[in-house]
Design a protein that fits this description.
Layout: E1 2-8, H1 16-31, E2 35-40, H2 46-57, H3 63-87, E3 92-95, H4 97-100, E4 102-104, E5 113-116, H5 119-126, E6 130-134, E7 137-139, E8 145-147, H6 153-166, E9 170-177, E10 198-200, H7 201-208, H8 217-226, E11 230-234, E12 242-245, E13 258-274, H9 279-289, E14 294-299, E15 306-314, H10 318-332, E16 335-348, H11 358-368, E17 375-379, E18 382-388, H12 402-411, H13 413-425, E19 432-433, E20 436-437, H14 454-463, E21 471-478, E22 481-490, H15 495-505, E23 513-517, E24 522-530, H16 534-548, E25 553-557, E26 560-568, H17 575-586, E27 593-596, E28 600-606, H18 610-620
Parallel strand pairs: 1-2, 1-9, 2-6, 3-6, 9-11, 10-12, 19-20
Antiparallel strand pairs: 4-5, 7-8, 11-12, 13-15, 13-16, 14-15, 14-27, 16-18, 17-18, 17-23, 21-26, 22-24, 22-25, 23-24, 26-28, 27-28
Helix pairs in contact: 1-3, 2-3, 6-8, 7-8, 9-10, 9-17, 11-13, 11-15, 15-16, 17-18
Bound molecules: aspartic acid and magnesium ion (MG).
Length: 624
């Protein structure tokens, strides 16, 4: 028998009628022959009200007591849900996180799950009851109540599904919310956006940064780690939503499946940094130390013994970031420039790994709209560009939450224009296999239900230990790439597009791209191509660069190695960059280019150090 975990968010249980409707969904799923677990959030805006209540009493409530308070929200909704299921004539039993044995670490208000007991849950399911579980909460080893951070019920749902799966059940997870599913982009900004039938975990993770994030990134990382199929769907309609699953070959039939806009970021550029091992580590270790997550990182080749690094942080963290970096910058004799308000526009798709010209198409669409790119980075399945907005930054003391980010998106005039332009350029409004549509008859692959022996179940549960630990799933080394760099490219709309058009017309597959504005009005653009294509790429680039500005310098480097750390938790764990750069610095290996996305972090180093660097990273991330 299959287990269905249904998660209902606060808006889906906001009224008694909605609770009854959700209860009916659970009963229907059971009637279809499934065993059902329901995970619920606090009713409506309860968590917000509880926080407001505490703040009226104290400006600085202790985190332990906040968890005691916030956990009550979900306790109300599980009781109500169980009452509703009984009222509709089925059996239900509710559990708080602690009762069920959802054990977390002791970081109050942002606890991480360490293990989940499934004995009680299985007992309830085997007895024919619907198990109702409180989202967002757990218990630490001292028996103190903890919560998982705002939006944490998604994580509870996926973690419970993973635990049940490891206990040998066939499982899927349905996330009921107030949207119909995942769209090609935010439909509030681009009206032509369409709902996507199926998307891969990685594509969803890369899209999640778009702010209208339908699910908590952490829960998607989790689903990927344990391969739990998810469906995101509307709580009030019977319309089928979006499956979020492992990557399938047909997803690669189109290069791009979605576009995303992230607002509220700020850009920091450090110039005239000494180009030697350990410098990037010093910068990112300092930021990780004060818990400032860094999003895009672009470091270029550098010339004359100097390098520059550009990166983005959330606008709300900008002050903390610059204060932390001030002394480091002074010590290194570097300079720091800040761009207060930037928007990030990205295109995402599993298919872009193997198709030439994706970057060129994106840059051309932006150039046609007169939009200048301040920075470019690429991931395995994502290309992001940074655009400067000319509106003043938002007031960070405003209300937090989705509403605010939507308001800010409204003010991100250039970002919105850019998003619309790329959505059009890739024809994302037209449903095709791989971009919106799944092949007919598609069903996500699930495990066959082999219920293991009791002893094996013990090991399965043990495997959950540390389930939220950082998961770097692999380190990849590529030694068959070469690099082309253009120095002093005038910083004006259209130039990158012209360059990549010349390269793409030669049928050359561009892999990593990093562009950073270095001197005022000048950009430095680097990209990697297969080594066999270097001579041709160089020739084409030289010709086109000369036609743009005879003062551009074009340099090729065949002796590079590209190292990628791939995995989940790159964004929610500030420390990945620190560990990676630290491991390389410890070996005295210099990094000449850095590039990031949500699910990968790439660096370019000298090829002579390739094997040594690979070994150092495997050791640092404990990969065999
Ligand atoms: N009730 C918690 C919150 O509002 C958890 C959740 O809704 O996922 O953040
Ligand atoms: Mg909520």
């Amino acid at each position: 028998m299959a287990v269905v975990v249904q998660k209902f968010g606060g808006s889906s249980v906001a009224t008694p009628q909605k609770i009854l409707a959700a209860a009916q969904r659970a009963i229907d799923a059971q009637a279809e022959g499934n065993q059902v677990v329901v995970v619920v959030s606090a009713i409506g805006k309860t968590t917000d009200s509880l926080i407001a209540l505490a703040e009226e009493i104290s400006r600085n409530p202790p985190a332990r007591e906040m968890d005691m308070l916030l956990a009550t929200g979900e306790q109300v909704s599980i009781a109500c849900m169980a009452i509703a299921i009984h009222a509709l004539g089925a059996k239900a039993i509710s559990f708080t996180g602690p009762q069920l044995g959802i054990v977390t670490d002791s970081s109050h208000l942002k606890a991480r799950i360490k293990s989940i007991e499934t004995a009680k849950l299985r007992e309830a399911l085997e007895a024919g009851s619907i198990a109702v579980v409180a989202g967002f909460q757990g218990i630490d080893e001292k028996y103190d109540i903890t919560t998982l951070g705002r939006g944490g019920s998604d994580t509870t749902a996926v973690a419970v599904a993973a635990a049940i799966k490891l206990a040998g059940y066939d499982v899927r997870c349905e996330i009921y919310t107030d949207v119909n599913g995942v769209y090609t982009t935010d439909p509030r900004i681009v009206r032509k956006a369409i709902k996507v039938d199926v998307i891969s975990y990685d594509e969803m993770l890369e899209m999640a940064s778009m702010g209208a994030g339908v699910m908590h990134s952490r829960s998607i990382e989790f689903a990927k780690k344990f391969n739990v199929p998810l469906m995101v769907r509307h709580a009030a309609t019977s319309e089928v939503g979006t499956w979020v699953v492992g990557e399938e070959a047909w997803m690669r039939e189109v290069p791009v499946c979605g576009a995303a806009l992230a607002v509220n970021e700020a850009r920091i550029v450090l110039d005239a940094l000494p180009d030697r091992p350990g410098v990037s580590r010093a910068v990112f270790a300092a930021l990780a130390h004060v818990n400032v997550p860094v999003d895009m990182i672009a470091q270029n080749v550098g010339s004359g013994g100097k390098a520059s690094i550009g990166f983005t942080v959330m606008h709300a963290d900008l002050k903390k970031a610059t204060e932390t970096l001030d002394p480091i910058v002074a010590e290194l004799g570097a300079t720091m420039t800040v761009t207060e308000r930037v928007s990030k526009v990205s295109v995402v798709g599993a298919g872009m790994r193997h198709v030439a010209g994706v970057a060129e198409k994106m840059f051309a669409a932006l150039a046609a709209n007169g939009i200048n790119m301040k920075m470019i980075t690429t991931g395995d399945i994502k290309i992001s560009v940074l655009i400067e907005e000319d509106v003043p930054p938002p007031d960070d003391d405003d209300d937090a939450g989705t509403k605010k980010s939507h308001l800010d998106a409204k003010r991100a005039v250039r970002g919105r224009l850019a998003l619309e332009a790329v959505h059009d350029a890739f024809g994302l409004h037209m449903p095709r296999t791989g971009a919106g549509v799944a092949p007919s008859g598609y069903r996500p692959r699930t495990l066959s239900a082999v219920v293991p022996e009791a002893r094996e179940r013990e090991t399965a549960v043990a495997k959950l230990d540390g389930m939220e630990d950082i998961l770097v799933s692999g380190v990849h080394l590529s030694t068959d790439q070469s690099r082309v760099t253009i120095f002093d490219l005038p910083d004006r709309p259209g130039h990158c597009s012209t360059v990549f058009n010349a390269v793409a017309t030669g049928g050359i597959l561009v892999d990593m791209i990093v562009q950073n504005i270095t001197a005022p009005g000048k950009a430095e653009l680097s990209f990697t191509v297969p080594r066999g294509d270097l001579a041709r790429a160089l020739k084409r680039t030289q010709d086109v660069a000369r036609s743009i500005d005879p003062n551009c310098r074009v340099v090729g480097d065949a002796d590079i190695a590209v190292l990628f750390v791939l995995g989940v938790g790159m964004r929610s764990h500030t420390g990945v960059a620190r560990t990676m750069f630290g491991a390389l610095a410890a070996k005295g290996i210099n990094i000449s280019m850095i590039n990031t996305s949500e699910v990968c972090l790439g660096v370019v180093i000298e090829r002579t150090h390739a094997e040594e660097a690979l070994a150092a990273l495997k050791e640092a991330f404990k990969l065999s």
